[in-house]
Design goal:
Keywords: ANK repeat, Repeat, Signal. With 155 residues, this protein is mostly helical. The chain is built from nine helices and no strands.
């Protein structure tokens, strides 16, 4: 006699993705991805795609804040907008620069992130990285053409 419990693992990938679309939050989808390595391999890209489509590309901000290069790379492969800004007016490059995450900053610049993007305080990635003492990021931004003349919002 067969086991009456049906495992998710025997379902076709298309059906698993359909089930994933009905989960209410990214946290729920992430939890499902984390339950099994096979589910992770099948649904993790879908999680990134959902973040781009539904959650304002917040995963790229998270990756920039915490120096998660692989996450940023996957998001870029999935079509994330590297020039987006969060509700604080911060771009991913501004976060990477402020927190000193050189590898993420390098990736974002390589992918076309705006060197002169400004937050609500008129800080640029260069001024923010300099203010926080992140010399390697300062050097990168200068080498890539960032304007070394800082102008605050008052002139």
């Amino acid at each position: 006699m067969k086991d009456p419990k049906m495992s998710l693992l025997i379902l076709p990938i298309e059906l698993l993705r359909l089930i994933a679309t009905f989960l209410k939050t990214e946290k729920d989808l992430n939890s499902l991805c984390q339950t099994n390595t096979w589910l992770y391999s099948v649904l993790n890209r879908f999680l990134y795609q959902q973040n781009i489509r539904i959650s304002g590309e917040s995963a790229l901000i998270w990756a920039a804040k915490f120096g998660k290069v692989v996450t940023a790379q996957i998001l870029i492969q999935e079509g994330v907008n590297v020039g987006m800004h969060d509700t604080n007016g911060m771009s991913p490059l501004l976060y990477a620069a402020a927190y000193g995450h050189l590898a993420v900053a390098e990736l974002l610049v390589q992918e076309g992130a705006e060197l002169e993007s400004k937050n609500w305080q008129s800080q640029t990635p260069l001024s923010s990285s300099a203010a926080h003492g992140h010399e390697a990021v300062v050097k990168l931004l200068l080498e890539k053409g960032a304007n070394p003349v800082y102008k605050n919002r008052h002139g």
